[in-house]
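Entry 14. Structure prediction run on the chain below.
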Amino acid sequence: MPKNDTGATIFYPDTRFERLARRPGGVEREVALEKAQAAVDDIKPDFYVWINHEFDALNAALAEIERDPGDKRALERAFHSCAQLRDVSGTMGYELVTFIARTLCDILEAYIAGATYDKEVVDCHSNAFMFARMEQYRHLTPEQVPEMTQGLLRVVEIASIVPSKTGK
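Output returned:
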């Protein structure tokens, strides 16, 4: 076992995953990446249908929250749909959607933690999503629309303030 400068012995556990990774065979990294990219390219045509479905689910949950801002289940559903959009859209070339979803996820997390619901904040993000879904803007990066992205970040900063449990 190797020693470091402090005299501590460094050892690495031999896990099942590490043993499997060292086995002969498998696929080279470049080949695996090419196969993964081909799989992503195969599902890209269906992605627009998926993203519209996910937006519908998000909007339905946001409508429920508007009616009852204390509805934790609706908040959780909205967060789940928003997180799906955040986690998948960038892979499919919708970086702006990922950015907007990330900022809305931050706000939804704050609402779940007890921040006061603000309809205008949610409407701002809904409008940004509509913008990002339009054909001419669909594949823009956040850097290409700095006014919008900086505005959304400022909204998150303001809206994500969670009141203390003591009310102070």
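The chain has six helices and no strands.
Filed with the rest of this week's runs.
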